[in-house]
## 1
Amino acid sequence: MAAATWITRVAKRTTFFRPKETKKLLHLGALPDALREFRLYSTVSEQAPKHEFQEKPRFPGAVNAHYTEKMDFVVPDDGQIIPVYRVMDLNGNVLNESHDPKLKKETVQDMYKKMILFNTMERILYEAQRQGRISFYMTNYGEEGTHFGSAAALLPEDVIFAQYREAGVLMSRGFTIDEYMSQCFSNRNDNRKGRQMPVHYGSKDLNFVTISSPLATQMPQG
Ligand SMILES: Cc1ncc(C[n+]2csc(CCOP(=O)(O)OP(=O)(O)O)c2C)c(N)n1
């Protein structure tokens, strides 16, 4: 059976995608999300009743975690599942008034628009890689909030050592779509001059140190 047919059948079997939506999703190239969601929902719905599930984190890697409204240090030896900190509930109500950063409406809208823009650009770059137009790509699907939220807490002069799946931080600082594309395509406008693999962005002007493939080199050392 062709992979696309199999995927369509799998997606249709879930109660979360009506056939029409599934077709639309596949057409838009949203395949990875559709699959991710299928995996996530099927696991969670087996473990938790629906009312509980709705107040639980809903992303891969945290299916058994709980929300917390308390900032705390977590000791890994405890063996506990790291809770997911949140400020708002699923209806947008702030749970602890003292944790509300009280951002302006325009600031929040700007962050949200950039998250959507970043995600849209990624779908195109991911497809470009699948079509063999660029050699490599790694998506940041579902992690956009951590990029734009963390970057918002920093000053422009703060130097960032990011990991490869934190590319939205650059957009938050003003890196343009053209700059992302030029880097991934290693064209003449690439500010790295084609010397890096795709997604290994960097920008001296934006105080963003070029991404390095070896993991953990982004941790402060000293
Ligand atoms: C020092 C080092 N060892 C191994 C690798 C190979 N490697 C690339 S990505 C990866 C997995 C990273 O997983 P995680 O930190 O959970 O990030 P994710 O890609 O899942 O977001 C590994 C082992 C590497 N890049 N650097």
Note: Residues 165, 213-215 surround thiamine diphosphate (CB under 6 Å).
## 2
Amino acid sequence: MFCEGARVIATDLPNLLGNLQYNVSRNTKMKCKHQPEVKELSWGIDLEKNFPRSSNHFDYILATDVVYSHPFLDELLTTFDHLCKDTTIILWVMKFRLDKENKFVDRFQELFEMEEISNFPSLNIKLYKAMKKKR
Ligand SMILES: C[S@@+](CC[C@H](N)C(=O)[O-])C[C@H]1O[C@@H](n2cnc3c(N)ncnc32)[C@H](O)[C@@H]1O
């Protein structure tokens, strides 16, 4: 985790925050200017309450392997949309598994301009850079 001088928030579901806090502490101890904040985020839920648009201006959103066989893809898309300003850059690592989940890329592209930055064909993994489309 690179957090020298940056304010970083690591998120996960409420029941996983203990594990996340442990991992963040282990990986950042003595390596960070500012200790990353660990915070609850359930995709699509209480977004404005927990991450008000007026006070959150993220430069980057890092998302790795968040698209797989789970029933919250709509909520995930809503969350990306909520957290992004016009200038926010999303760096998103996608592992391609099943057709149904892979279609998320098309839906994502309706809201975001995206560019492929890296491709690891033997692993079915791509890294994308994305920004909100001008609406
Ligand atoms: C496959 S893991 C990837 C974890 C990590 N980003 C990585 O690449 O190692 C998917 C992550 O998404 C989280 N997740 C799944 N459903 C979620 C939801 N509805 N809201 C928030 N986080 C969720 C899981 O708890 C888990 O941490």
Note: The mean pLDDT is 94.
